[in-house]
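INFO  loader      accepted 1 record
INFO  loader      residues=777
INFO  predictor   begin
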Amino acid sequence: MKKLLFLFAAFSLFIIHTALSQRAALNPALYRAISDKGVSSEMTPLLAQGDVSVIEETIRSLGGKFKYAVSDIAAFALPLDQVLTLAETPGIERIEGLYGPGQLMDDMTDVNSNIIPVHAGYAPLPQGYDGNGVVMAFLDSGIEWSHPDFQHADGTTRVRWLWDQTMSSGGTEPDEFGYGQEWDSTAINSGECTHAEWSGYFGHGSNVTGIGAGNGLAVNNFQGVAPASDIISISVSFNSSFLLNVADATKYAFDRAAEIGKPCVINASLGTYGGSHDGTDLAAQLIDDLIEEQNGRSFVCAAGNAGNINFHLGYEAEADSSFTWFYYNNYTQSVFYEFWIDKTDASNFNFSFGADINSPYTYLGRTKYYNLETSFNYSNNVSIKKDTLYNNSIRIGIITITAYRYDSSYACDVSIKPDLTTYYWRFITQGSGRFDCWSSTAVLGTSDMISAIPDEATFPDIARYKLPDNSQTIVSSFSCSDKVITVGNYINRNVYIDYYGHVQANSDVVGALAPSTSFGPSRDGRIKPEISAPGNTTLTTGQFYTLYGLLIYQPYKVAVGGMHNRNGGTSMSSPVVAGVAALYLQKNPGANWKETKAAITTTAKRDSITGFNLPDNKFGYGRVDAFAAMTTPIVLGCMDPFSLNYNPSATINDGNCIPIVFGCNDANATNYNPAANVNDGSCNYNVGVSSINTSDEHFYCYPNPSSGITQFFYILSNPDENANILVTDVTGRMVEELPVSQASHSAMNSIKLEKGIYLCRLYNGNEQGRLLKLVVE
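INFO  predictor   done
INFO  writer      dumping tokens
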């Protein structure tokens, strides 16, 4: 596993901080890189938010390469020593990059996910669906492109494009991105493709692609969810610019699919556990913008495989202090971790740092308390504090605190250089407000938190100890976006036949959550993952080199026929859901991301294993059910009958209800209300329309709400022969006109009206009466 090495040079940080005068905020990792590498001219992939024209002009003037922009976020490459110059440019609000390396997120699937009736076209489906006409793009470690599962029956490739971000020769460099090598289907069919999935990933990309889109032709078995879809394979670079590489891959896939006029589903069985876990970083925002750019797009990702690792710490601070110990990290040669807190929680959240000896347990003291609002002097959203902890006259360690201020949150890096590496270092909280911290040597390359603690009799202070947990262990960034479907993992099968015909069985419970599947919620409390799918013990398309090794050393992991192998994890559950999204877009190619997500989540299966009190942050809304997703009517719209845009046909609330605001919406009136979207007849004018809202008229209706006959009651002192009652919907479209044939009463049958809100007004010649709101149920 790749480690993110936080080489924290305190002196150079100080120099950078004192010289810093940028207007744009930098993310923590980019700030650390500038301080560590100083005046490096290394070309670095970055994102910036602000005036895109200003960003492009400045990038070119500083010797960088401008790649593209979506909405107000631009992607580019720039020498690292020019970042601070760029940050000083007016019109640029935020610059981010070098988030850290990413990692991969490692039959019965068709049965467990109810895919067979979709392929077969069972009623009420009008036909079978197999992904034909849809592009599936896999952001992963690459693909065994010559595998028969990724070819048509005539031997030609199903891979429309392949982009290897890690290669520098052998193909064609995509002009808009400026790195990597790509091949189209023509180049692949002619034998020009030199991409080979790196053996160190053990065929991960091929496995994932096979589950989502494999056609099973190699052995006439192990077909994927969308076996007739086109394939785009992107071998993502897992370097320190990983999240920017994912953003580039997203744009690449969506753009290529648009070239051939097809809907596109992206599967990303990869991610990073570091960051804010709220989807607000620029890479996540850019991916959101790309998803929203046009209909017929969906993005699905793995939740992660750290659900059995206690590397999250988060709780509400209390009036009395609490603390958690952190270990010294040999990789960083320091104690290093990062925590996040919303601005709404920060005003009374205080923290300090202390140390203990662990044999025997002895408290050595703490620093003063800090507060992110009041203790730091921010120079354009960054501030550094240094402190030294002493026990009497003996120095214990030097603490460097780097605080970052964002629009709605703070991030804080803590780096401690201890005089002895055996000290246990306390992170102490006091006051109020919730914070979150993710830290682990194995997962993030940062410091481990200590779970093996003494009892109170041995060390009374331990009564105030807060243990790390596994309650928010999902991957960060785009995985925490509402526009991305994040997938958890359950046991797919517990028995299969291996290459030599032997039965391989285990005691796993089919349908139960896999022990490693990561849990939500996001840091801001949203449900993640949204759905679960079969992952563990899945037999899928293998990479040839890996299959060769497995047949020698672990043949029990290879399926009958020798072309498929066993794998698991959320990496394998994610492409199941991505495949279902592809089937849905084949049937509904104009669906937007909300509709596709709603079709998958609102039709999920629940049972005694998932529980019925869903959604939760383990199974999400339940287990994916392809047939239900394909056959349940989904109409997005406003479901609030008291809203201006109420849609009585909507089955899923789209969250875009517009509240009705009654008032005068005539700009020529003296009491014009610009916020009003429904005229209530209260307009007053300076030009002699004195008959409006006259006091000799009364008008009302009963019953209201109504579902049958509606009675209108009124008193007219001098009825006109053309007097009538006009009934309109909230947009002003007339739906009924009732003649006033008596002086006091009329009736309307509202059964024929659709459910909703209607506006009624009595007219008597040139006079108009009070506006009434009628609700039809």
